[in-house]
Design a protein that fits this description.
The protein is mainly alpha-helical and 66 residues long. It is 85% helix and 0% strand. The protein has one domain.
């Protein structure tokens, strides 16, 4: 296996791990009605837009779900 293949495998595993962490973090946040709508939206963003969604959730999403 060459270096590019190794880097690709590490990047994919990192992406899967961060996505799983983000979905788990979203699931454990507040449960009132308004926040539930935000939780659904953030979960969709993280799943549909893998890299940008993770970045946006890390920068902005965690503050909105407190």
């Amino acid at each position: 296996m060459n270096a590019l293949g190794f880097v690709l495998i590490v990047a994919i595993l990192l992406w899967i791990g961060l996505s799983a962490w983000a979905v788990k973090d979203i699931a454990k946040r507040a449960t009132d009605v308004k926040k539930r709508q935000h939780k659904t939206a953030w979960t969709n963003i993280v799943v549909i837009f893998p890299f940008l969604g993770l970045l946006a959730y890390g920068v902005y999403g965690r503050r909105t779900l407190r």
